Amino acid sequence: MNKSKKNCLKKKSDILQKVKKVKGTRDLLGNQIILHNHITAKFVKLCTSLNFSQISTPILEYSEIFTKSLGLSSDIVSKEMYNFEDQGKERLVLRPEGTASIARAIITNSIEQDLNKFFYYGPMFRRERPQSGRLRQFHQVGVEYIGTNNYLSDLEVIILAEEFLKDLKIRKKLVLEINSLGNEISRKKYNESLKSYLQENLTQLSDLSKERLKKNPLRVLDSKEINDIKIVQNSPSIIDFLDYESRSMFENLVNGLEKLSINYNINRYLVRGLDYYNHCAFEYVTEEKKSQNTVLAGGRYNQLFASIGGKDISGVGWAAGIERIEMQMNDLKTKDEIICFFSTNKELDLEVIRIFTDLKINSSLKLHFINSGNLKKKFSKANKIGAIGSFILGEDEWKIKKITWKDFSSGSQELVKLSNIDQFLNKKIFEK
Asked: Where in 41-198 does DSSP place strands (E)?
């Protein structure tokens, strides 16, 4: 290999190194973005039909919004947040989750006195170890029902989750797990008992759980270490420490689920990983016992607003990771319906452009103009991109203001009036 060729290859290699994507991110294209948009569209349609209003918050937020609400001991705050200082010496973060941002938006816009039902979707950011179902830039859909402290609100957002997962045809793959974290009084008593139990087993705990024990004993229950799990299995249950208020809310929720024939399991170790949760907590999980088995999760948060300087109001909600949902939908078929247009000679190309750009098809149909190659190559290109058929304009057809339609699945063809192409497609393609 000569020197110039080696230098050329080296330059090409250097360029490829420079343009690689950031670790833990992905590009959405092809069937991936079709599936992504399919999930989002299902979510938006359902939320809108149940009178939830859309809200969109900035990707950038002040860091204190999350340090105050999520808790310093949470994994997000302690090791996962993209936390930085900008040129103006402001401490900012790329939002790691949606609920705290929405709480901030409600306070900022002075609508705390209102009953708010919101839905949202968009990218979130956490510096996690990338793996299947866990990215550093990931996407969430979520709902928040704010201004009510009633188990019926908890039930309503769970019903919404049920319908969403059914719409996506993945509900049967998941198990709904629920627990109560109680109110502040219940949790204080439980924390004391749990801490005492864990102290007795301190030498057997992982180093991470030992640290969590110092800051927030509840976080030990969320450990994925095998030894920690064994110890937790014999730990006190928070359900045994619930006061009358907390027990009533939980029992009413459970009774509501049963009356509505919603299947669930009580998981007395379910705590969620954020400090703002109290009373009901729930997760939709796969039956596979792995760290990324949670698809949709949420609960009640009655102290969140006060923790970031707002009024003492209640809320309940959930969020679902789109990437996690996608992992459960690998059997979804996402086939585009592509219609090609081309001429038999280049003199008619401008007429073909005019025809297909003037079409007004009320559908997701994709129209594709092929402008190079002989007739054989044009057919080959149409087949290569998966077109279901093609309109072909020749001199004879142009003279009588018609165009040939060729159906690739059946091999049949017919003449169509240029003025009737819209109607032809709507009838022949979309009424199948």
From this structure: 53-54, 60-62, 82-85, 91-94, 116-125, 137-146, 174-180
What does the domain layout of the chain look like in residue ranges?
A: 30-183+243-327, 338-428
Global pTM value: 0.79
CATH topology of domain 338-428: Rossmann fold (3.40.50)
The CATH class of the 30-183+243-327 domain is alpha beta
Whole-angstrom Cα distance, residue 126 to residue 74?
Answer: 12
Residues 409, 179: Cα–Cα separation, whole Å: 53
pLDDT tens, N- to C-terminus, the chain (432 residues) = 566 666 665 665 665 567 788 999 999 887 788 889 989 999 999 999 999 999 999 999 999 998 888 877 677 787 788 999 999 999 999 999 999 999 999 999 999 888 899 999 999 999 988 877 789 999 999 999 999 889 999 999 999 999 999 999 999 999 999 999 998 888 888 889 988 988 898 888 888 888 888 878 887 887 778 888 889 888 988 899 999 999 999 999 999 999 999 999 999 888 876 667 889 999 999 987 555 689 999 999 988 898 898 898 999 999 999 999 999 986 555 556 788 999 998 889 999 988 888 887 655 678 889 988 899 999 999 988 888 889 999 999 999 999 999 999 889 999 999 998 888 887 765 554
Rounded (10°) CA dihedral 370, 373, 377, 382: -10
Identical fold for domains 30-183+243-327 and 338-428, yes or no, is: no
Q: Which amino acid is at 179?
A: N
Q: Which residue has the tokens 């708010």?
A: 116
Residue 231, amino acid: I
